[in-house]
TrEMBL record, chain A:
Gene3D superfamilies linked to this entry: HUPs, TPP-binding domain
Alphabetic keyword roster: Electron transport, Transport
Domain of life: Bacteria
Name under which the protein is recorded: Electron transfer flavoprotein subunit alpha/FixB family protein
Automatic annotation (TrEMBL), chain B:
Presence of the UniProt keyword Transport in the record: yes
Gene3D superfamilies named in the record: HUPs (3.40.50.620)
Organism name: Shiella aurantiaca
Protein name per UniProt: Electron transfer flavoprotein subunit beta
One Pfam assignment: ETF
High-level lineage: Bacteria, Pseudomonadati, Bacteroidota, Cytophagia, Cytophagales
Length: 319, 245
């Protein structure tokens, strides 16, 4: 029986987190077909890329009304795609759109839904997954008891597969209900051409130790040298030094990059909760007693204003 | 405007998390419980809207009797009355059913929740309730204005936000900066004692997931310190030892 994967795109390409979701489905599929479903205007050639991650086919609902993330319509479309494919499992990447959509699909399809899935499921006797809880401070092993199952996965839950053959792309149309387009998106205010924080393999994050927004240039330079996204602590976005969507932590974005570099951040427990599933953490702080060092893999005690530019140079030199 | 605010009862954000009974029960020893931080934003915004336009704010919690101090705190902050569904919140589906069942009777104009609970972090209850009631659900909402039967909202998306309009009734999962957290004052605390808190039994006991076991993350190794005068060494460690560059 096929596994369906909901894939999102950004700037004309499938999002990396969605390709991870396809890889996750492929790793658990055991030979059954993995079918992706994509919405809105996007080139078939871009969609065929889902094949590299392990999908054999992409259902494309090219309705231009889906260019925007209309939550109810997306849920209807995904439930219709599951019915068409006879799929009893849906996998998707956790995201600001994936979460609210998955919740509605779970009710439409009478499914068990588990979010924040951190590893491939264990199917020896039942169907269990390991999910992160208490904002990354612990895990729970949870059994999905319904026949239909939906998994919203965390970043880095599985290694990205990149060697599959291109997928076939099939047009699919959906009969939407009268209420599906009740949400009217009037405008969007979004940075373009930048690496999105939840998608990034490397994150460079700054705290109140950076002293002011005018000093972010050096963090942006470091981020550019590394191909990283930039983040910040809560007070930094509260004061308005940085935009809200860069705020990392328990009440902000939860990141799990391969490398998290924290500059001038003290390491309060609420900040750590948003970064503790990063593979490697580097802390740069002028206070040797900053609590963040206890959660770090590598640390430098020093003044950010001296260390960061030197680090940027050293990274450029090592390339 | 008749508003329902759903609040979770969760460990304070500074809590150390641990488990008992062979990793099957949360160890609440020494843990301080609070209104979920995102739910607190929803409550604050609900009270602001009520103060501006009139109406009522009801808070709802699905939980056992030990959640009542948390519910009383919401009343002290300014909710008018409260409902406790007397049951352990086993999973998001279970919680959503209880909320939807009460909302079907009461016909709220808006059901505000947090973007996610900070214990199970599903971010799922609002969407489930929206679908059960057949009304729109929007999350994560960072701005919410009501005007002539319509809500104007800003929703956070990766890398920015989108602005949207939805007709009432609706469900929203809220987050900052939708409002400032409100702190109860003395008068609020006094009046909370006598505000109505209705206890009802669950409408259904269905769940869709079952916990088998809790687990703690693997312990972190010791930090390796590098001299500020030798950042090249850090780069080489990241490249050759950690293999992340
Ligand atoms: C309910 C709740 C939820 C919260 N959620 C979050 C959250 O999601 N995310 C979050 O980040 N916080 C959150 N917080 C806030 C958190 O408790 C801390 O207040 C916050 O993380 C501190 O930010 P900071 O480290 O940038 O600032 P500070 O604590 O002020 O630390 C600044 C650091 O910079 C260092 N420094 C100063 N100058 C330099 C220099 N020249 N070079 C190098 N280092 C320097 C200092 O030694 C210090 O360690 C929350 C709090 C509450 C109560
Ligand atoms: N036990 C509960 N009682 C009432 N509301 C809840 C409960 N659990 C979660 N909620 C609400 O649902 C939101 C999303 O929760 P979750 O889907 O668990 O992340 C929370 O922010 C609360 O507003």
């Amino acid at each position: 029986m096929s596994i369906l994967v909901f894939i999102e795109s950004a700037e004309g390409a499938i999002k990396k987190s969605s390709l991870e979701a396809v890889s996750f489905a492929a790793a658990m599929a055991n030979g059954s077909p993995v079918v992706a479903v994509a919405m809105g205007s996007i080139d078939s050639s871009a969609l065929a890329q889902a094949g590299a991650a392990g999908a054999s086919k992409v259902l494309h609902i090219a309705d231009a009304r889906l260019d925007q993330g209309i939550i109810q319509a997306y849920a209807t479309a995904i439930a219709a795609a599951m019915a068409k494919e006879g799929a009893k499992t849906l996998v998707l990447a956790k995201s600001s759109l994936g979460d609210p959509v998955a919740a509605r699909v779970a009710i439409k399809t009478n499914a068990s839904l588990v979010s924040n899935v951190a590893e491939l499921p264990n199917t020896n006797g039942g169907f269990k997954v390991k999910r992160s809880i208490y904002t990354g401070k612990a895990f729970a092993e949870v059994e999905l008891t319904a026949e239909t199952k939906i998994l919203a996965i965390k970043k880095n839950a599985v290694t990205l597969k990149e060697d599959g053959a291109p997928a076939s792309v099939e047009a699919f149309s959906v009969d939407f209900g009268a209420n599906d387009f009740g949400m009217n998106i009037t405008s969007t205010d979004k940075t373009t051409g930048e690496i999105l924080l939840p998608e990034a393999e490397i994150v460079v994050s700054g705290g109140r130790g950076m002293k002011g927004p005018e000093n972010w240039g050096m963090l942006e330079d470091l981020a550019k040298a590394l191909g990283a996204a930039t983040g910040c602590s809560k007070p930094v976005s509260d004061i308005g030094w940085r935009p809200h969507h860069e705020h990392v932590g328990q009440t902000g974005v939860k990141v799990s990059p391969n490398l998290y570099i924290a500059v001038g951040i003290s390491g309060a427990i609420q900040h750590l909760a948003g970064v503790n599933s990063s593979k490697v953490i580097v802390v740069i702080n002028k206070d040797a007693d900053a609590p963040f060092f206890k959660a770090a893999d590598y640390g430098i005690v020093g003044d950010a204003f001296e260390v960061v530019p030197k680090l940027t140079e050293a990274i450029k030199a090592a390339k | 405007m008749k508003i329902l605010v759903c609040i979770s009862h969760v460990p304070d954000t500074t809590s150390k998390i641990s488990f008992t009974d062979n990793h099957t029960k949360f160890d609440s020893n020494g843990v301080q419980f609070i209104i979920g931080p995102y739910d607190d934003y929803a409550l604050a915004r609900a009270i602001e809207i009520k103060e501006a336009t009139g109406g009522t704010v009801t808070v709802l919690n699905v939980g056992e009797a030990d959640t009542e101090p948390t519910i009383r705190k919401a009343l002290a902050i300014g909710a008018d009355d409260a409902i406790r569904v007397n049951a352990f919140p086993s999973d998001s589906y279970f919680v959503a059913q209880q909320i939807a069942s009460i909302a079907k009777e009461e016909k709220y104009d808006m059901i505000l929740m947090g973007r996610e609970s900070i214990d199970f972090n599903g971010g799922m209850v609002h969407g489930m309730v929206g679908e059960m009631l057949g009304i729109p659900s929007v999350s994560p909402v960072m701005k919410l204005e009501v005007e002539g039967g319509k809500a104007k909202m800003a929703r956070e998306i990766e890398g920015g936000k989108e602005y949207l309009e939805v007709s009432l009734p609706l469900v929203a999962g809220c987050q900052e900066p939708i409002a400032e957290w409100k702190i109860p004052n003395m008068r609020g605390i006094m009046s909370a004692r006598t505000k109505p808190l209705k206890v009802v039994e669950p409408a259904s006991n269905d769940t869709r997931t079952k916990l088998s076991q809790y687990q703690m993350p693997a312990a972190k190794g010791a930090v390796k310190m590098v001299s500020a005068d030798n950042v090249a060494e850090l780069v080489s460690l990241l490249k050759n030892e950690a293999k992340v560059l």
